[in-house]
Amino acid sequence: MVEGSAEWSVSGIVRTMLPLLCVLTAIELVSGLVLESFEETLLAAPSLLLLVPVTIGMGGNLGSVLAARLSTAFHLGLLSFSPTDDRLAGNAVATIGLSLTVFPLVGAGAWGLTAVVGETGLTLATVVLIALLSGLVLSVLAVVVTVVTTYAAYRYRLDPDDVVVPVVTNVCDVLGVLVLFGVYRVVA
Amino acid sequence: MTVREIAAEAYRETLPVLVLSAIGGLFAGLVLVGMEAELAAVPGLLVLVPALLATRGNVYGSLGARLGSALHQGVIEPTLDFGDERLNAAIAAALANGILVSGFAAVLGVVVLRVLGSESAALSTLVAIALIAGLLSGLLLTVAVVTVVVVGYRRGLNPDTLAGPVVTTTGDVVGIATMLVAARIVLAVGGG
Question: Is the ipTM of this complex over 0.90?
Answer without folding.
Answer: no
